[in-house]
Design goal:
Helix content: 10-25%
Number of strands: 6
């Protein structure tokens, strides 16, 4: 997994990430794409917090899950997609800072199932606090044609 991903793989990851309504809604961005590893950033916004002002665990979990999914997808063949089959995340510290940084890293690639390590850090200036860690299992499936639903839902008439 030391080899750099091809430009085609990077484009596939970026296009798939761009189609994710939740990541767009949260304001997450891709910070790095390497073979078997993806880093995502989520800037602080009050709308992403829980009652005590920390990043909400739901946003933290979604960011971690997505980072791991795309880390796995960097190793999957073209014409295939990724789905999470299971993940567990331990919250280690309150998530407070100017942004969250989620790192998904493939531990065990496989033809069907892949296992990833998930780590989330709260970043404030130069300080990084490890706020969550977990494991994830993903499945490689053949890509299916689009459902025909628009990427961005329109309100009913």
């Amino acid at each position: 997994m030391t080899q750099d991903p091809t430009p085609r793989t990077i484009a596939r990851i970026e296009a798939s990430f761009g189609a994710q309504g939740l990541m767009r809604h949260l304001g997450a961005t891709i910070a790095a794409i390497r073979s078997g590893e993806v880093v995502l950033h989520l800037p602080y916004r009050a709308e992403l917090t829980q009652q005590m002002g920390y990043f909400h665990a739901g946003g933290t979990s979604a960011l971690a899950d997505t980072a791991g999914g795309y880390a796995a997808l960097t190793l999957f063949p073209e014409g295939h997609e990724v789905l999470t089959t299971e993940f567990k995340l331990n919250l280690l510290n309150p998530a407070r800072g100017e942004r969250l940084e989620a790192v998904g890293r493939v531990l065990k690639p496989g033809r069907t199932l892949t296992v990833c390590q998930l780590d989330v850090f709260a970043v404030e200036g130069e300080a990084r606090t490890h706020v969550a860690t977990g494991l994830q299992t993903l499945i490689c499936i053949a890509a299916r044609p689009s459902s025909g639903r628009p990427a961005q839902a329109t309100p009913p008439s």
